[in-house]
Specification:
CATH class of the largest domain in chain B: Alpha Beta
Structural class of chain A: mainly alpha
Strand content of chain A: under 5%
Distance between the termini of chain A: 30 Å
CATH topology of the largest domain in chain B: Rossmann fold
Oligomer: heterodimer
Largest sheet of chain A: 4 strands, mixed
Strand order of the largest sheet of chain B: 6-7-8-3-9-10
Number of helices of chain B: 9
CATH architecture of the largest domain in chain B: 3-Layer(aba) Sandwich
Largest sheet of chain B: 6 strands, mixed
Order of helices and strands of chain B: EEEHEEHEHHHEHEHEEHH
Order of helices and strands of chain A: HHEHEHEHEHHHHHHHHHHH
Structural class of chain B: alpha/beta
Number of domains of chain A: 2
Number of strands of chain A: 4
Number of strands of chain B: 10
Strand content of chain B: 25-35%
Helix content of chain A: over 70%
Shape of chain A: elongated
Strand order of the largest sheet of chain A: 2-1-3-4
Largest interface: A-B, 24 and 30 residues
Helix content of chain B: 25-40%
Bound molecules: adenosine-5'-diphosphate, magnesium ion
Shape of chain B: globular
Radius of gyration of chain A: 30 Å
Distance between the termini of chain B: 27 Å
Chain lengths: 397, 247
Amino acid sequence: MSWRDIFTVYRKELKDMLRDRRALLSMIIIPTFVMPLLTFGVGKVALRVTAKVREEIPTVVILGGEDSPGVVAELKQSPRLRVGVAPDDWKQQIADKKIRAAVRLPAGFEAGLRTGLAPPVVFYHYEGELRSQRGLQELEDFFRALRERTVVARLGDHGLPATLAQPFEFHGENVAPPEKVGGNLAGGFIPYVILLLCFTGAMYPALDLTAGEKERGTMETLLCSPVARGDIVLGKFLMVLTGSLAAMILSATSMGLSLAIGRALAPGLVSTLPRFSPVGILGVIGLTLPVAVLFSAVLFTVALFAKSFKEAQSYVSPLMIIVVLPAVIGMLPGIDLNARLALVPVLNISLACREMLSGVWHWPWLALIFGSTCAYAAIALALAVRMFKREDVLFRT
Amino acid sequence: MIEARSLTKVFRDRKRGEIRAVDGVSLRVEPGRIYGLLGANGAGKTTALRLLATLLRPSGGSATVAGYDIAAAPERVRAHVGFLASSTALYGRLTAREMIAYFGRLHGLADATIAARTARLAGELDMDEFLDRRCEKFSTGMKQKTSIARTLIHDPAVMIFDEPTLGLDVMSARAIVRFVRDCRDRGKTVIYSTHAMGEVEKLCDTVGIIHGGRLLAEGTPGALRERTGTLDLEDAFVKIAGGGAVP
Ligand SMILES: Nc1ncnc2c1ncn2[C@@H]1O[C@H](COP(=O)(O)OP(=O)(O)O)[C@@H](O)[C@H]1O
Ligand SMILES: [Mg+2]
């Protein structure tokens, strides 16, 4: 192995890539702008949508209730609900999001309230739909209050105090520091985007330096040189890794900068964005380093088999899913790191990043993740070198 | 000096099965000589030359190129060989100067040596006007000159040309032929493949006729004509390639 040769190949590839507009786009421009766009753009839209839902007064309809005029009147007076007339196809209208929810007042409900046992009230809603859930919540709040008032009234009738039904109060208070909350919320999302950029940053150089060179006929020229095959691979691999790391570091930096600038310019908006620990971001970068090596080596090896850039693209696209899937699983709430998951490539990084961003440092697991990812990366790199020495791969017809 | 002994290359193809692209080829080229490998498409010329240039590893037989064994010391062989084929392209985003310098560095030359040799080669090949322009915009002739400079930057003792005039216009092809002759006159060992009879007649000291991976006949152009009783080399070629080996 000759460092001089490796560096010669690397320097040439770097120069070549820096002159390629498509390479600059995938390694520098997209990573720099995608994070701020995502955090501010998507964040802003998401905020606006949820605010709108929160402001909206949900429309609900009452089914039955002809013999419960008091409750119906009270519902109609509630400022937090808009009570409409129930159409025949009310179920369809809930599904079509025209009505948020419906409530069935059974026959004899109001009478039951007075005499002792009233038949149950049923709510109809659209499970999982944001606005319908708001309607349901308002209905539940209304009937819970009604029930409490009824209990208090009955106690009063018997000369008993209201505290008999509610001997004490309780409420919740958040004690987790804001970055922990932010880490948990954004912790799945940020490593996901960083991993993705890490992959796409390596993609273009990996394809261009292998299949692209074969297609253009420069690979054969390069192979005429006395440089050892292994050194050519390492020089080229370093360029692919550069693309991956550039994408990762640029995206992390641009996000940090845009958050800082945003905090200065529009404090209102930024305070609604999640906060996470800055040391956590460094941790994320540290842990993503071996993943960048892994991605670069795998992409390099796969693309090497192709005869043309286009063919290589068709091999690499399915790999994207392999990267995205574990990263998405890592975003799901409730999946926590354990010894077995710590060995699953990409997913382990995703989960560990979420913990680090919320300020949790499980050192043994982090070491296991770092170590296993390094091992995978080394295997992939060794494979790349082996493939490059195979003439049926280099001179495929 | 090139010496091949029963050089054989077998490709295993999923559809076509076993292909003996080069089959027991033995030949010898002395310094200051041009050996012409004459054969139709698919005869095995490219494969034979790639074996000598160590781009491919032989399945059988052996060869010594510039004093090194192609199997035992392929990197040494490449250090003393200049390989030029129509399939060896230039890096489009590099300038001609950068392209030449890159290969100089890959051959372990010092920057000062590279600069001096580039200046000399650019003068000889009349490249000064486009030396600092990117290769992607070059005409075929300019590309050819740059490729030649690339193969010569390390001053190799052995030159291997695989159909270098393929697809070139008459002027560029003549320039190549002149350049190959130059190489011989400087004492280099030259092996040259083509399917164009005219070039062989003009250039080669020895001609080998290759067909189906096998070297069917060998000799000076005149000797081949004599042996087959034909008037020109083309007839000789048809007779040899069509009728099997000549005794
Ligand atoms: N990498 C390869 N894999 C399989 N077969 C090949 C490969 N390279 C060449 N061949 C086959 O070997 C034979 C000789 O090819 P080649 O050396 O290119 O001939 P020529 O250069 O004389 O046209 C052809 O049948 C060709 O299809
Ligand atoms: Mg050929």
